[in-house]
Design a protein that fits this description.
Helix content of chain A is about 20%, strand content about 25%. Chain A is an alpha/beta fold. Chain A has a single domain, classed as Class I glutamine amidotransferase (GATase) domain (Rossmann fold). By secondary structure, chain B is of the alpha+beta class. Classes of the chains: A alpha/beta, B alpha+beta.
Chain lengths: ~230, ~80
């Protein structure tokens, strides 16, 4: 499986995701944001970080990069796209995913592990989570408070386009288990065709049983299965 | 020509910073402050003498870049 990781000025999780992809035998290429076209890719990853210092709005400046046109083309052709953290923000700013990530409700940068409930398995990213529905992944963000109008939220719920929700250890999705004020406890969503996933937590940081755990590994294993 | 634009969060969007500023002012004794919403202000110097044309262009960039219309509104102010 071929993957491309897009690198912007200020990306800082690009190397982590490359390590993860290589561990799962992806043939990966790093792609600078100023390139005109993508190399042949099954999967495009928009990594975490602080592209352009979060100027104007998180992900906004990056969403106007030259490579974005080809990423949109890749999306329209059914190619897979994974946006993690700042990558998720960039995907909403390009309108490849609906809604927007607002500043965390309590105005604090959050860097900690959270529990997540996997709420949809019928997609290329999450099928392997059927063996573990409640997982633990790290978050590290200042703007992770997912917001969309009521109609969009209803559409996401009704069509099973929410992939991950913040929950507690027992899997209860409620206000107490919502770290950043996200609407409906949303931590990750899919587009209507389910070939694009945007998520605030970092699966690439949990791929090694010795260092951390493997709750992120299932995502990469799912992707391998899908091709 | 100089034109400015303000960008503010839509009514239904939570503005935690504005809330904190409001609460702090209340704590300072300004009881009659009901609420404050925080926004952004852009001063734009544009090489265009036709007021209508300039306004149209600022409107375009407001929609395309300065504002995320999912959560924000913009207002153009001609001097």
């Amino acid at each position: 499986m071929k993957s491309s990781v897009i690198v912007f000025p200020g990306s800082n999780c690009d190397r982590d995701i490359e390590v993860a992809l290589k561990k799962f035998k992806f043939k990966n290429k790093m792609v600078w944001h100023d390139e005109i076209s993508l190399p042949k890719s099954d999967l495009v990853v928009v990594p975490g970080g602080f592209s352009y210092g979060d100027y104007l709005r998180a992900g906004c400046i990056a969403s106007k990069s030259r490579i974005i046109n080809d990423i949109i083309k890749h999306a329209n052709n059914g190619g897979l796209i994974l946006g993690i953290c700042n990558g998720f923000q960039i995907l909403t700013e390009t309108s490849l995913l609906p809604g927007v990530l607002l500043r965390n409700k309590k105005l604090k940068f959050l860097s900690k592990n959270v529990y997540l409930k996997v709420t949809d398995f019928k997609n290329n990213f999450c099928q392997n989570y059927q063996k573990k529905i409640i997982i633990e992944l790290p978050i590290a963000h200042n703007e992770g408070n997912y917001f969309a109008d009521k109609k969009t939220l209803k559409n996401l719920e009704d069509n099973n386009l929410i992939a991950f929700k913040y929950c507690n250890k027992n899997g209860d999705v409620n206000n107490d288990s919502n770290p950043n004020g996200s609407s409906n406890n949303i931590a990750g969503i899919l587009n209507a065709k389910k070939n694009i996933l945007g998520m605030m937590p970092h699966p690439e940081r949990l791929i090694d049983p010795i260092l951390s755990g493997e709750d992120g590994s299932f995502l990469f294993e799912s992707l391998l299965k899908s091709i | 020509m100089k034109i400015s634009a303000t960008v503010t969060l839509k009514k239904d969007v939570l503005d935690p910073q504005g809330k904190v500023v409001t609460q702090t002012l209340k704590n300072m004794g300004y009881d009659n402050i009901v609420s404050i919403r925080q926004g952004k202000y852009f001063e734009i110097d544009i090489d265009e003498n036709d007021k209508e044309k300039a306004k149209k262009l600022i409107e375009e960039i407001s929609k395309k870049l300065l504002t995320n219309l999912v959560i924000e509104n913009y207002k153009i102010i001609l001097d």
